[in-house]
Amino acid sequence: TSNRTFHAETTYTLAGFVHVANNATLTIEAGTTILGTTGSALFIMRGSRIMAEGTAADPIVFTSDQADGSRKPGDWGGLIVIGNGVLNRTGSIILEGTGTSATNPDIEYSGGTLNSDNSGSLRYVRVEFAGFGPAQNQELNSFTFAAVGSGTQLSHLQSLAGLDDSFEWFGGAVDSKYLVSYESGDDHFDASEGYVGRNQYLIAFQSDILDPRAGAGTPSGDPQGIENDGCGSATGGGCANGYNSAPLTIPMFANFTLVGPGPIPEVTSTSGGVGMVLRRGVGGYYVNGVIARWPKAAISLRDAETQTRYDDGELILRNILVVETGATAGVNAPLFESGSGRFAIDSVAENIEKAVDADLTTAELTGIPAAPTLASLDFSLTTGAEARTGGTGALTGALATKGGTFITGTAYRGAWDPAGPKWWSGWTNYAKN
């Protein structure tokens, strides 16, 4: 409840649910390690701030207190930031994973009025082996941004082997750049409840669904690369106008590379295994992306309200390359999922295309082998890869209006600039235990 600094020469251990409250600021020095024990999590409460600014050489690492080789998804809870941003849900909305015990009280994140709110800064931060569930179906996320405002600074963040979503935004307007999600137990990037922030340069990589810590919860049977919703319920749930509840969820996701798991048995849901799911009245702008290896479909557009967003120009998908989707390598699944409540858009008009050569390992990314190791993962593009071109170029119209000075239009697709550095190098990790 008062200002505190974590110093790099000390290793800190979280025991239980730790709240930074009373408008206090937690400062974490570059190179600091914070260990999470079973049933622990760090909450930055509304009005308080976290200033965690690492460097590429000295990232800040939140990880399991278990020994290397014995770590599992769900070893601890995660990092949760609660701001004063705006939601499209009314009433008292309680954060999932809270209110499960006397030591884990309800945390309300609704009722905010300031989308420019400032909850601090996270730079070069890793969250590893998080996602513990305090109760059945109440898993925490690796990074949770609940009603976080645009005054907060987010860049160079990695989620590694979380049991639930890697990055989740509930309302608010915080922007981010340079995010990496590795081996998520559920969705890699998940936004809903009136979120209107902007995100650029995102990598999701899924090769497996890792076994969680016993008693921590259950991984999802329907992992997705991006899963964005408007309001979560057609009736009730604080969604006063159902999927049309305002403010609408209108984010921007630019320059994403979403690499899925391919045909693995852990994808059990008939609606799972999709590169990008947009549903429940969501809008937003999704441009200059690469979607690969998702077994069900590249993109799933669902619900009449979501189609209304598209018809009204509040949902734009443009300049996206799809590579190697389907049940087996080289067998392509549809660009757009079909079925009840699903719809497709004009892929030619929107420059959404399948790669000519469907083999991702040789045609698009430098180092994505079937059994990756830390040394073999490389998200840069090979010489001649189709994703080196085909981007939007300078943004115009609604894309430029939304992107402002934060989002840069690019001539390439995906998360890496062929003329730029490998921005993930040095500070990310790809361990599985």
Task: Give the helices and strands, then pairings.
Layout: E1 4-6, E2 11-14, E3 17-20, E4 25-28, E5 33-36, E6 41-44, E7 49-53, E8 60-64, E9 79-82, E10 120-128, E11 143-146, E12 153-160, E13 167-170, E14 176-182, E15 189-192, E16 198-205, E17 224-229, E18 252-259, E19 274-279, E20 284-292, E21 297-302, H1 304-311, E22 315-323, E23 342-343, E24 352-354, H2 360-363, E25 365-367, E26 378-381, H3 397-403
Parallel strand pairs: 1-4, 2-5, 3-6, 4-7, 5-8, 6-9, 7-10, 8-10, 9-11, 10-12, 11-13, 12-14, 13-15, 14-16, 15-17, 16-18, 17-19, 18-20, 19-21, 20-22, 22-24
Antiparallel strand pairs: 21-23, 25-26
Detailed description of the structure:
The protein is mainly beta and 433 residues long. Helices cover 4% and strands 32% of the residues. The chain has 3 helices and 26 strands. It has helices at residues 304-311, 360-363, 397-403; strands at residues 4-6, 11-14, 17-20, 25-28, 33-36, 41-44, 49-53, 60-64, 79-82, 120-128, 143-146, 153-160, 167-170, 176-182, 189-192, 198-205, 224-229, 252-259, 274-279, 284-292, 297-302, 315-323, 342-343, 352-354, 365-367, 378-381. The strands form 3 sheets. Strands 1, 2, 4, 5, 7, 8, 10, 12, 14, 16, 18, 20, 22 and 24 form a 14-stranded parallel β-sheet that branches. The chain has a 10-stranded mixed β-sheet with strand order 3-6-9-11-13-15-17-19-21-23. The chain is globular and about 55 Å long.
